[in-house]
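Predict the holo structure. Ligand: 5-O-phosphono-beta-D-ribofuranose.
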Amino acid sequence: MTGSNGHASIDAAVPQVGIIMGSDSDLPVMQEAATVLRELGIVFEMTIVSAHRTPRRLYRYAEDAVARGLRVIIAGAGGAAHLPGMAAAITPLPVIGVPVKTASLSGQDSLLSIVQMPAGVPVATVAINGARNAGILAAQILGASDAVVRERIMHFKQALEASVMAKVERMAR
Ligand code: RP5
């Protein structure tokens, strides 16, 4: 799972988005971020970084992220979900947090752990299991300063609208 495995982008071979997760048990959810980044032609990397089980790896990952070319980090975790907040504490890059649904508390624990950051250390938190939106948001952050990516986001939005309008027309028949 480690390493660059996103689609080749027109303008970058180096991963621009880092997808990290606390455990391989988060992969089925976090895979959705990878899928949409592939759809948008954004180069990403994806790996396991546990705030609790591999704290030194977390520190290194977040500290080296800018130098390695990352521009956004998506961090997913469940339960006592400290990974996104700790990554945000270390790196100057924007961090998007994905609360992963848990068996015991349905992800309420993950959500509250991620969203309640102290002033000065924001994490852009998406919905429980909202990894697809995290991927889209990461692309939008890149698109703020990259016209090629911005154009892809516009097409993506047009396709979304078209898919709804097709349903509207089907329902009217
Ligand atoms: C968190 O604990 C992970 O993000 C995962 O969601 C949760 C459970 O991890 P495992 O016990 O399945 O490895 O650190």
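The longest strand covers residues 72-78. The chain has a mean pLDDT of 94.
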